[in-house]
């Protein structure tokens, strides 16, 4: 079974005079995610954030912004269009739309190029490719509008490819429970004090949302052998936990991405042993963040064997 | 303008009792390439091989086999199906079908997975992916039949990505002539004694076929900035010329592939300075060749800048 784990992601931030997203009913968010061909599985919340676990990834809602992450064959762009239409263009302060290069892009209903064409119907934006076309890369689109992020608004994405056979076997075992996965991921170390909502998919897959005050972390795992993939996306500093996660998954390669609100600060300071830094791309985006994309791979001593398709 | 330079390639070998391909009329080959959505631009020949330069790459015809290479949005698989139908399945000794991972696969009419499904309607084959899904890789399909290649039947593919700005500018200049490209590529060193047929495409692109006895070499260049690409495919040992070609194109990365008829011989012995060997995949194929796939990239000191799309 082929499943595209790589996510599409949108952060939509409202103008100060048009906030109040927390008072929206869940039925509105259900409508929103339906537009993307996803559905809501469950919800956790506190006084500042609601976190919806979806059939394909996650939706987070704060008073002034949403973060929608969807994987598989979802049409996230339709959810953005719906949101903008429902709230009105005047409410929108900034849209940041991001998409990883896919490995089964022929199965996707749209490409990034299609998506930004649709955003350009309503907005005027900038679109960049972070990384060479023949390498791991990330596409990013944002509106051509000044935006000054909060000084604590620091985002980390840690995307893991080709996870080791041992981790795959563990994650593909029958009857796997979410408690087992939490232990496997050593989440007590990474997420002390967080409220957690997670789900083990059948036949395979695991998703987790975690919140603590206005902080969040979300994990999505696709263990299938044809394209094993795990993603972490969070606004807590995940760098210190990367060695632990590398140890658990022993990935063939990974991407590490940062959105840094202070352009003077440096990005990407982590480098586990045995991994080679292949690519670094950095750019100060006119929407106020420094974006940093990097790709690492595990040095191999031996030649690989082919992957048998037939 | 987006153009997928990466090629699809098929080698079809006839049984000993069913040879005689050189006596086929050109109109037959025109029909064949039309099935793939390509057309014949020109031809060179000697007593043992005909080489057709196509609107999308090349066709070589020997008495007992053909080699068809097509790029862009061609449907090479339709040409294989046509060939098999016209000659009859009984004539076919071996089919080796190869496809590089593409970077604009959403624009392709079919995927490798679709293609091999169509081959399996008539044949029983093996399909492999040489390389991880998130890395440069090559797909290969061949029939489950014993085949013993000629001891001199050694094939090299040298595929160059992200060629340098200087080379791109040279190759995209207005009024570029094929003589200029031959000089730029230093072909007098690589191809002494070869008969050459080449073509400069408008607005951009260059293709070359060269033959000498039953040896061949073909070059295809897509210099466009969105995905610059150059391919060399030949049965002459191109390894000694790789440093020269690296010097000319200064690529960001390249793949080097070998089909080696002697399983005891080693493959891939080349390693230009400044380039890091990232991937090596090797397998002895049951169709009689050792296949070797490798991917190299240029070590960079500086961070990359993003590529602006909008």
Description:
2 copies of one chain form a homodimer. The two termini of chain A are 14 Å apart. Chain A has one domain (8-298): S-adenosylmethionine decarboxylase, CATH 3.60.90. Chain A is globular and about 55 Å long. Chain A contains 7 helices and 17 strands. In chain A, a hairpin with a 2-residue loop joins strand 11 and strand 12 (215-222). Chain A is of the alpha+beta class and 310 residues long. The mean pLDDT of chain A is 94. Chain A has an 8-stranded antiparallel β-sheet with strand order 2-3-4-5-1-6-8-7, covered by helices on one side. Chain A has an 8-stranded antiparallel β-sheet with strand order 10-11-12-13-9-14-16-15, with no helix packed on it. Strand 17 of chain A pairs antiparallel with strand 7 (125-130) of chain B, so a sheet runs across the interface.
Describe the structure using short key phrases.
homodimer; 310 residues; alpha+beta; S-adenosylmethionine decarboxylase; eight-stranded antiparallel beta sheet; globular
Question: Mind sketching the topology for me?
Answer:
The structure is a homodimer of 310-residue chains.
Chain A: E1 8-14, H1 26-35, E2 40-45, E3 49-54, E4 57-62, E5 65-70, H2 76-87, E6 92-100, H3 112-120, E7 125-130, E8 138-143, E9 155-161, H4 165-171, H5 178-184, H6 187-190, E10 195-200, E11 206-212, E12 215-222, E13 229-234, H7 242-249, E14 253-260, E15 275-284, E16 290-298, E17 307-308
Antiparallel strand pairs in A: 1-5, 1-6, 2-3, 3-4, 4-5, 6-8, 7-8, 9-13, 9-14, 10-11, 11-12, 12-13, 14-16, 15-16
Helix pairs in contact in A: 1-2
């Amino acid at each position: 079974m082929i499943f595209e784990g790589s996510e599409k992601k949108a952060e939509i931030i409202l103008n100060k005079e048009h906030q109040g997203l927390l008072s929206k009913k869940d039925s509105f968010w259900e409508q929103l995610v339906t537009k993307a061909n996803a559905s809501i599985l469950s919800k956790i919340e506190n006084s500042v954030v609601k976190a919806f676990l979806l059939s394909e990834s996650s939706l987070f809602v704060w008073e002034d912004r949403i973060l929608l992450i969807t994987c598989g064959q979802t049409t996230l762009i339709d959810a953005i269009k719906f949101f903008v239409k429902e709230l009105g263009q005047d409410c929108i302060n900034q849209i940041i739309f991001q998409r990883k290069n896919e490995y089964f892009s022929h199965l996707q209903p749209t490409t990034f190029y299609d998506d930004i064409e649709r955003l350009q119907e309503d907005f005027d934006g900038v679109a960049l490719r972070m990384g060479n076309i023949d390498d791991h890369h990330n596409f990013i689109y944002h509106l051509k509008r000044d935006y000054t992020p909060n000084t604590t608004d620091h985002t980390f994405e840690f995307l893991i490819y080709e996870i080791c056979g041992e981790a795959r076997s563990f994650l593909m075992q029958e009857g796997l429970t979410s408690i087992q996965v939490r232990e496997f991921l050593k989440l007590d170390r990474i997420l002390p004090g967080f409220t957690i909502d997670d789900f083990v998919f059948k036949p395979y897959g695991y998703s987790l949302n975690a919140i603590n005050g206005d902080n969040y972390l979300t994990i999505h795992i696709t263990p299938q052998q044809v394209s094993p993939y795990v993603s972490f996306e969070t606004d807590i500093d995940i760098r210190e936990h990367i060695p632990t996660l590398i140890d658990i998954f022993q990935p063939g390669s990974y991407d590490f991405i940062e959105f840094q609100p202070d352009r003077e600060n440096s990005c990407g300071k982590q480098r586990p042993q045995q991994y080679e830094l292949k690519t670094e791309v950095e750019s100060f985006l006119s929407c106020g963040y420094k974006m940093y994309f990097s790709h690492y791979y595990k040095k191999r001593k031996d030649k690989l064997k082919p992957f048998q398709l037939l």
